[in-house]
Amino acid sequence: MEGTYLYQTLHVRGRRPLWLDRHTELLARNIQELFGLRWAPDLRRLEAEIAALLDANRHPVAGSSFVRMAFTPAGDLLLIPGAVSFYDGYALRSLRPAAAVVNYGVPYPEYPTSAREAACMLALQAAVTADNRAAEADIERAAVRTGVQAVIRCDGEGFVHVCDEAPLFAVKGKKVYTPPAPPSVERELACRAVEAARLPLLELEIGREQLARFDEIFYVDHRGLTSLSACEGQLYAAIITERIARVLNKLY
């Protein structure tokens, strides 16, 4: 799909889009603010269209799948089928990527757009290239490197914001921290899961140099939680993240 568009990615479990009302509410708000258009979908009809789309693409009825709602500046809504999940529901993914911190700019960073997503992909490609070159120049580093698979975006002042453009959380002891961020379904669910797990949750700016002080770092998107294994040489655990993930999967 070409051109810039706003989007929300739905987690569909057993043909039921989870938190569809909240996803459409956020998308409608973003459409109004960025495109100056009004959008008020019929949720029952939209849910039926999503189920028909997954049927047409032969997604299994059981388990989880993903569907993107893409809204163009011309006022068109497109439903784009995504992947079939290996998991049933929001889960802690078994893949634990290593991340690099990159200062890169994105257009309209407060909105989930295809342009913001493309900027993240370019930043990741640049980080992977830089990591490969550094490993080639350092044999000892090459022997122990994990390879960059995700990027944490930071700004010119050194504050981090998101990982792969998804809400970022950091754990120290039994306290969970998250930087200020625009509203999203995934961030709201993660915050609810942290509170339901009876863990203190604090919102504050996190500097790039502070990342090494945390015990765990994870981000949350439509798939669930992804725990980072490392970031710029610092290794992380996933004990509290697993606890939060267990609670998250019970919130719907």
From TrEMBL:
Gene Ontology MF terms: catalytic activity
Gene3D superfamilies for the chain: 3.30.470.10, D-amino Acid Aminotransferase, subunit A, domain 2
Pfam families on file: Aminotran_4 (PF01063)
Protein name, as recorded: Branched-chain amino acid aminotransferase
Organism whose genome encodes this protein: Alistipes putredinis
